[in-house]
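It is worth pausing here to work through a concrete case rather than discussing structure prediction in the abstract. The textbook approach is simple: state the sequence, then state the predicted structure, then interpret. We follow exactly that order.
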Amino acid sequence: MLPPLTLVLGPARSGKSAFAEQLCAGAGAGTYLATAVASDQEMAERIAAHRARRPAGWRTVELGGAGAGQLPVLPATGPVLLDGLGLWLAPRLPEAPGPAGTAAVVAELDRLLAALRPAQRRPLVVVSEEVGWGVVPASPAGRRFRDLLGLCNQRCAAAADQVVLVVAGCPLWLRGGPAAAGPR
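Step two, the predicted structure:
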């Protein structure tokens, strides 16, 4: 049984989305909130691969960078999988300069999480990129994205009942989950 909020973190191509889908698989038909936008052919191919892997019977909502005020009506039950937080954040960068912008992005994330978790009647699984372990980005925009996503990840983790880090397809429970997963 899934807890009310699970955060699944991992670097690029770590298997975090597939792992999140597996977590949700036993919780019945749900809603997949996809945040990617097909801005070029390569991204369209990535989106197609994710679509092909989605659980049968799930409703898919192409959320893009929509905020809490733009969410569709969601079923009262069944899991909701938001994939992913980094692509949700990206379109907010130009409108979020300085401390006031940072506060606005964090407040929008809080509204989004609250809108997705009404009365905790359905589990929510949020997928996000862990971008803080790599090289410091060369551009100010890259550093701003890394810093804002780090804050959003911290905010989401603070609210989460379960936090899982996925590296090379292997989950490591940071909070909640199996006490000792051990090697397979």
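Step three, interpretation. Residues 140 and 146 are 10 Å apart (CA to CA). DSSP finds five helices and seven strands in the chain.
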